[in-house]
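In this supplementary section we document a worked example of the pipeline. Step one takes a protein sequence of length 180 as its only input; no multiple sequence alignment statistics are reported here. Step two produces a three-dimensional model, which step three serialises into structure tokens for compact storage. The input and output of this example are shown verbatim.
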Amino acid sequence: MRLLSLVTSILFAGTTSLMAGEFTLHSNDLSGQLTKTQEFSGFGCDGRNISPELHWSDAPKGTKSFAVTVYDPDAPTGSGWWHWVVVNIPASVTSLPADFGNSAKTQKIPSLQILTDYGKAGFGGACPPKGDRPHRYMFTVHALNVDHLDLDSKVSPALAGYMINAHSIEKATMVSYYGR
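The serialised model returned by step three reads:
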């Protein structure tokens, strides 16, 4: 019994130390399912189109800036759907407030919001086809090894994704689902 207790303690301690310091993304607004709050307003959907609050911790050493993306790999396009791309978030920033993706509002956090597959910059909420199985929405924060990506708000999300991935040190992802 004492040996089993010792082995369990060693395994637990090893697991805890392995987990400490991992780059992690959280949200006070998201769970396993998105809601009407994060549903797009338009394109046949009637949600509120409000981006969720996001916060992250334990960024890797060498992080000089962050990017945030939201991607639906289940969209019936053959290439998925980009719902949100934000780049040039300073390394000192570890959270984005709810509705940060509303590009019409003045933001206190310097950053650049890129075009989405809806054809405009800012957050574009979930809007899967009616009757389709629930789609996965992958919220990802990328730790980048550069202070600034030389992009403008009119570049395609694919080009922005290419630049993000070329400079990514590490990323943390949360997945939520939504169906109509």
